[in-house]
Amino acid sequence: MDIFEILLSASFWTAAIRIASPLIFATLGELICERAGVLNLGIEGIMVAGAFAGWMAVYSGTGLWMGVAVAMAVGMLFGLVHSLLTVPFGLSQHVVGLGVTLLATSLTYYAYRLALPEVTSPPKIEAFQPYEVPFLSDIPLIGPALFAQTPLTYLAFILVGVVGLVLYRTPLGLALRAVGENPSAVAAQGLSVTGIRMGAVIVGSGLMAVGGAFLTMSAFDSFFFEMVNGRGWICIALVVFGAWKPGKALLGAVLFAAFDALQIRVQQMPLGADIPYQVFLMMPYFLSILALIVMSRRAEVPAALMVPFNKGER
Amino acid sequence: MNQSRNTKSFGLTRRRFLGTTAGTALLVAAGMPGALEAAEPLKVAGIYTVPVEQQWVSRIHKAAGIAQERGDIDYVFSENVSNTDYARVMREYAEQGYQLIIGEVFAVEQEAREVAAEYPDIAFLMGSSFKQDEALPNFAVFDNYIQDASYLTGIIAGSMTETGNIGMVGGFPIPEVNRLMHAFMAGAREMNPEITFQVSFIGSWFDPPKAKETAFAMIENGADMLYAERFGVSDAAKEKGVLAIGNVIDTQADYPETVVASAIWHFEPTLDKAIAEVRAGTFAAADYGVYSFMKEGGSSLAPLGTFEGKVPQEAMDLVNQRSEQIKSGEFTVEINDEEPKSS
C-alpha cells in the first residue's frame, strides 16, 4: 500500500477516529478548565483514575453507562481537590496539577491492588461494541469512519457541539469565559468567580476521566496501570492547538490521531525497513508541533489563565 | 491462588517486623553470610517495576510462590517500583537482611550494579540485557531465554498462516524481545521460506489500545497470524477472526478460538539454582539465562488445548522432532539479539 491508498481507506479513518476519541473527551475537559482560567495538569492522573473507576465499576457488575458515570464522578472528585487548592486557596496551578496527577495515579494503583489482590492477569469486561448507525454508516469512507464506532465515540462528538453551544450561546458560557478573561468584571456583576471556576474544573475533570474510561471500556476491555501513557499531556497541547475553541480542538485531536494511525501503517511500507521505528513513533508529535506553530499564531490565550483571583484585591 | 495469599500474609508480618524490631534487621544482616542453618528458609525479596500481573514478572512471582510453599524461601516483594526508585528499594531490602534479591534492572543497569557492589554479602539475581561481571561476584543476571519454545511456536504459526503474512507487535526492540522474535521467525520459515513478516514496536510496554491498533493495521495489510508479544494483540486477532501465538504466558483460556500455541517461560529452574547456590555459599557472577532453555525445563510449548488436532500433522511432527533434538543438544536455536525488521 502506498500513502494515498492508506489515506483513502475507510479502515484508516475508522482507526483515526477511534484513536482520537479519548483525546476529544480529555481535551474538552481541559479546555473548559482553561477557559475558566485554571490550568489543570491533573489531567494525566485523572484519566488513569477514570480508566480504572469505570472499568472496575463494570467489572463489579454495574452497566456500561453506569461505569461511565462512575468514572465521571471520580474525575469530578479529583477536580474538586484540584479546584479547592487552586481557586479559593490560589496555590500554584502547576504544582497542584502535578500533585493531583501523582495522587490520582498512586491512589488508583492502591485501589486496584486492594480490589484485586490475587489476579494473574487483569480481568476483562464486556466493553462497548461498535454500533453501526443505519444508512449513515453506508456512506463510503466517511460512513464507517464516523458512524460505525462505539457509543462513547458518538458521545465525544456530541459533547463537542454541546460544549461549543454552552460556551458561546448561554449566559453560563459567557460567565465561564469571562472568569478566564476578566474575573473582576464577573465579580462586579455579583457572580461568584470562585464558584464558576471550581465548577468548571470539576466538570472538566469529569470529562477527562471519561476520556480515560474510553481506553478501558471501549478501545480495550481491561485495565493496565500505565495504559494512559501520556495521552493527557497531549491533550494539554491540543487545547493550545485548538486555540481554546472546541471545534478546532476536535480538529487537532483527529489530526493527531490520523498521524498516529498513519505512522502505524507506514511502518509496514518498504521504507519502514530503512528508517528506525522511533522516527515513526515520533511523527505524530513532530507533525503536531509543526501544526501547533502554524495554528497558534493567532490564538488568544485566556487573559486570566493561571492568575488566581482574590476578591476585593486590586 | 494460594501462593499469593501466602505472600500477602507474609507482607503483613514484614510490616510488623519492620515496625517493632528494626534493630534486629541489622543484626541479621551483620551475621548473615556463614551463620545460616540449612533448615531455615532463605530470605528472598523481589523488586519489580511493574505489577505482578505483567507477563514477564508473573513468571518470577509464580516461581517464588512455589519455592515459598515448599518451605525453601521466605518471599516478599515490591511491585510497581519506578525505575528512579529502584536503587532505594534494593538498599532497603539489603539493609533488612534479605539474602537473595531478585528483580529486573533493564532500565537501571548501572545503578543496580553500584548498589550490589555496596552489599557484597547479599546475592543479587537480576533480569538484565547485559552479561555478568566477574568484578561483581554477588551480581548474577538472567533473562527469559525461551527462544527454543518460541522457535517451536514459529513452526506452528508457519504451518497455519494461509496468506504467508505474519504480524509481530513488540514493545521495545531490547534483546529479550528481539531474540524471541528471531527464533519465532526462524521456526515459521522452516515451514515456509517465503513467509513475510510485519514487525512494529509501539514504544511502550503497557498500551494495549495502541498494540491493538497496530495489530489491526497489520491485519488490514494481509496478516492472518499475529505474534502477540504485548497485551492487546490477541484482542485484535480475536475481533478480526485471525490467529495469534502467545508469548511467555499461556493466554489461550482468554482467547480459545484465537491463540493457537504459546511459548511459556518457567522461572523455577533459574530460581531454584540461585537458591541452591546461595545456600551452598557458592553464589557467583554468572549468566542464569541458560536455565530458561528448554533442556533445563525453563521453557516449553504450551498444550495446544482448543487447537489440538487443528495444526497440520507435518508441523507437529517437526515440532516433536525438534523438541527432542533441542533437549538432547543436537539442535540449537540461534540466539540473535538484533532488532528484527519487516520483510
From TrEMBL, chain A:
GO cellular component: plasma membrane
Transmembrane domains' residue ranges: 6-26, 38-58, 64-87, 94-112, 146-168, 198-217, 278-296
Subcellular location field: Cell membrane
Topology within the bilayer: Multi-pass membrane protein
One of the Pfam families matching this protein, by short name: BPD_transp_2
GO molecular function terms listed in the Swiss-Prot or TrEMBL record: transmembrane transporter activity
Keyword Repeat: no
Alphabetical UniProt keywords: Cell membrane, Membrane, Transmembrane, Transmembrane helix
InterPro entries the UniProt entry points to: ABC_transp_permease
Designated name of the protein: Nucleoside ABC transporter membrane protein
Lineage of the organism: Bacteria, Pseudomonadati, Pseudomonadota, Alphaproteobacteria, Rhodobacterales
TrEMBL record, chain B:
Gene Ontology terms: cellular component: plasma membrane
InterPro entries referenced in this protein's UniProt entry, alphabetically: ABC-Purine-Binding, PnrA-like, TAT_signal
Entry superkingdom: Bacteria
Annotated signal sequence range: 1-38
Protein's UniProt keywords contain Nucleotide-binding: no
ABC transporter substrate-binding protein PnrA-like domain location: 68-284
Alphabetical keyword list: Signal
Designated name of the protein: Nucleoside-binding protein
Organism: Roseovarius pacificus
Lineage: Bacteria, Pseudomonadati, Pseudomonadota, Alphaproteobacteria, Rhodobacterales
